[in-house]
Every structure is written in structure tokens, then in C-alpha cells.
Design goal:
Strands 1, 2, 3, 4, 5, 6 and 7 form a seven-stranded mixed sheet that branches. The chain is mostly beta strands. The chain has one domain. The protein contains one helix and seven strands, in the order E-E-E-E-E-E-H-E.
Length: 111
């Protein structure tokens, strides 16, 4: 099984990197085939890059929820256990539904 620990970032807080930052705008659960799918709606901003600046809204799907926010890191961030979604047909279905819910977010990526 492809399970791993997903650390939840605080909603609206910038997560900085060398070229800019991203922010989790919202986090939610999608019901799919009797299972719960964790997803995050994010906005990335590139501030310092050789190619200029810009931004991108995207949806990140960690996977199927095995346990949701059952413990915290020493920094107080919630941790969930999730299973990666590996079946292409499932990814396609989930992506289609997320694009229906969020029509202006074109990029959907899976862990």
C-alpha cells in the first residue's frame, strides 16, 4: 500500500521557498466510490525567478484518507495518514469532479 503521512499547512499562511511562496486557500474532502479523498486548493506565487514573476492556482490531492488529523507535529500542524491514488481511471474521475467544483483551477496534481 502507498500510505504516507501528510502534514497539513495552515489555511492562508504563506509557505516560503527560494523563488516565492504558496498558500493553501482551502482544504476539503471529496467523497468518491465510498472513500474520502483529501484535497487542497492552493495558490503559488513566483517572485524571484530567472523567467520573471507570476502565479498559479492549483489543486493538490494527497490521496485517500486513512486517518484524518489524528496527531500534531511539534510545531502544531495536523498530520493525517493517506494512501496515494495510483489507478489512472480513479485519478481521471477525481480530477474531473474537482474541475467541475473549481472551474478556474486547471492544474490538478496527485501525490
Amino acid at each position: 500500500m502507498n500510505k504516507f503521512e501528510h502534514v497539513h499547512q495552515k489555511i492562508g499562511e504563506e509557505v516560503r521557498s527560494i523563488a516565492g511562496y504558496y498558500t493553501v486557500l482551502e482544504e476539503d474532502v471529496l467523497e468518491y466510490n465510498g472513500r474520502r479523498v483529501l484535497y487542497e486548493v492552493k495558490m503559488a506565487v513566483v517572485e524571484t525567478s530567472c523567467c520573471g514573476s507570476g502565479g498559479l492556482g492549483f489543486i493538490f490531492v494527497p490521496g485517500y484518507i486513512l486517518s484524518l488529523k489524528d496527531r500534531q507535529t511539534p510545531n502544531g500542524l495536523w498530520v493525517s495518514e493517506v494512501e496515494r491514488i495510483v489507478e489512472e481511471s480513479e485519478k481521471k474521475d477525481i480530477e474531473k469532479e474537482l474541475r467541475r467544483i473549481y472551474p478556474h483551477f486547471y492544474e490538478v496534481s496527485f501525490a
